[in-house]
UniProtKB/TrEMBL annotation:
<dbReference type="InterPro" id="IPR004843">
    <property type="entry name" value="Calcineurin-like_PHP"/>
</dbReference>
<dbReference type="InterPro" id="IPR029052">
    <property type="entry name" value="Metallo-depent_PP-like"/>
</dbReference>
<keyword id="KW-0378">Hydrolase</keyword>
<dbReference type="GO" id="GO:0004722">
    <property type="term" value="F:protein serine/threonine phosphatase activity"/>
</dbReference>
<feature type="domain" description="Serine/threonine specific protein phosphatases">
    <location>
        <begin position="2"/>
        <end position="259"/>
    </location>
</feature>
<dbReference type="Pfam" id="PF00149">
    <property type="entry name" value="Metallophos"/>
</dbReference>
<protein>
    <submittedName>
        <fullName>Diadenosine tetraphosphatase-related serine/threonine protein phosphatase</fullName>
        <ecNumber>3.1.3.16</ecNumber>
    </submittedName>
</protein>
<dbReference type="InterPro" id="IPR006186">
    <property type="entry name" value="Ser/Thr-sp_prot-phosphatase"/>
</dbReference>
<dbReference type="GO" id="GO:0005737">
    <property type="term" value="C:cytoplasm"/>
</dbReference>
<dbReference type="InterPro" id="IPR050341">
    <property type="entry name" value="PP1_catalytic_subunit"/>
</dbReference>
């Protein structure tokens, strides 16, 4: 049981000093897209790329090693070697059927319910957005839209409060769930109610307002492991090779003043398809 205690201690430590919802970072980061329980790929990233890392969320569900992946990511986070952003799978609405809760119960037995509640609280404390060198925005899903269907500003995201377990706030929810579309403005998302596809003009307005260049994000499965949208205003990185993603060619992104995408297997600079229609 020492291992369970260790795990709970780690979870408590992550949320002891909760980071702001919008983190401001400087320097160079290795951005890692969805892992979904792919420990093998995470190990390869850690072996071949120097820290610090910027994890873009979706550590658990679908693959078999969600527990190992999320533990490693959060360990690096508390050691200051990584930033762990929240994904839509860091949430009870996904983990009940997505595989993580079952995995937890298989691996740690009857205490899994209590330990899962610790995960729930820690997931709720994870940051939603990182701004790197004032130029690059990192988040899991996409730009959130306000009621008037204009993009929310970072200042508005910073002010989000209330229960973050699911989360209830529509802006926070959309940051975890939205996707880019090869469209001008926006469209309802096939993922479900309250979720949007955002287009070229939304991305442009967001970057103009903040003086930023690119949004690097995960969330969308692309077999090529990366995709470029909105003239480079948005870049998708996908890093899982586990479970349903066996055919992916995982990518990572080097985030500095710009975003450069690399193939994990070859370490070569990657050519990402442009404006793919992901649904
Ligand atoms: Mn996702």
């Amino acid at each position: 049981m020492a291992k369970v205690e260790q795990l709970v201690n780690l979870l408590v430590k992550v949320r002891e000093r909760p980071p702001p919802l919008v983190l401001s970072l400087e320097g160079r980061y290795v951005a890692v897209g969805d892992l979904h329980g792919d420990m093998h790929t995470l190990e390869k990233v850690l072996e071949e790329w120097e820290p610090p890392y910027l994890f873009l969320g979706d550590y658990v569900d679908r693959g078999d090693h969600g527990l190992e992946v999320v533990e490693q990511v959060l360990q690096l986070f508390v050691e200051g070697k990584a930033v762990a952003l929240r994904g839509n799978h860091e949430s009870p609405i996904m983990n009940m059927d997505g595989g993580f809760l079952d995995e937890l119960c298989e691996k740690i037995g009857r205490k899994c319910g209590a330990v899962y509640r610790e995960f729930e609280k820690t997931f709720a404390s994870l940051p939603l957005i990182a701004v790197v060198n004032k130029k690059i925005i990192a988040l899991h899903g996409g730009i959130p839209l306000k009621d008037d269907m204009t993009p929310a500003a970072l200042e508005e995201v910073e002010k989000i409060s209330g229960d973050m377990t699911t989360p209830r706030d529509p802006l926070a929810f959309q940051i975890l769930w939205n996707d880019p579309c090869p469209c001008e403005k926006y469209a309802p998302s096939p993922r479900g109610p309250g979720i949007w596809l955002f287009g070229y003009e939304i991305t442009k307005a967001f970057h103009t307002r903040h003086g930023t260049r690119t949004i690097v994000r995960g969330h969308t499965y692309v077999p090529t492991g990366c995709a470029v949208h909105h003239d480079g205003g948005v870049i998708t990185v996908f890093t899982s090779n586990a479970g349903p993603y066996k055919k992916t060619k995982p990518k990572i992104a080097l985030v500095k003043e710009e975003v450069e995408v690399y193939d994990l297997a070859t370490k070569n600079s990657a050519k990402c398809p442009q404006d793919v229609d992901i649904f």
